[in-house]
Amino acid sequence: MTEEQLNHYKEIILAKRAELLKQLEHLKSIGLNTSVKDVSGEHSAYAFHMADQGTDAMEREQQYLFASREGNFLYHLDRALERIEKGEFGSCISCGKEINPERLEAVPHARLCIECKSREELTKK
Question: Does residue 112 contact residue 80 with C-beta atoms inside 8 Å?
């Protein structure tokens, strides 16, 4: 892979990483650190008691799941940046073949070619 191609993928990955960090920060600021009491107000005992705690718990759980999934995505983006720095980016870590450029455009953090990824998915079932 040429230096120009590597720089192209690095820019894509860095842009995705920056957007992801912004989303995680937003999630943190709006919901992961609040409770029902925080949302309803310190002096609003009636609102606190009337708040739908089940809905609040479900929304918080969804936020945690989203944050966890996004954290996993961040991990994979960081590993892709490491592969770029090591000169290993664009090669399948399983078979060593070059990963199709169309696949890298769609999934720039891909570590497996489509054939190896398909085999991996089949073995998970």
Answer: no
Helix pair 3-27, 53-86: axis angle to 10 deg: 160
Nearest C-alpha neighbor of 66 from the set 35, 27, 95, 13: 27
Quick one: pLDDT at residue 32? 55
Q: Which of 83, 100, 93, 90 is nearest to 119 (CA)?
A: 93
- At residue 93, φ and ψ (nearest 5 deg) are -75, -10
Are 110 and 79 within 8 A, CB to CB? no
Residue 54 binned pLDDT confidence (cut-offs 50, 70, 90): low
Torsion on CA atoms 71, 76, 82, 85, rounded to nearest 10: -120
Do 103 and 91 contact (CB within 8 A), yes or no? no
pTM of the predicted protein model = 0.72
| Structural Rg of the chain based on CA atoms | 21
Structural domain spans, the chain: 3-89
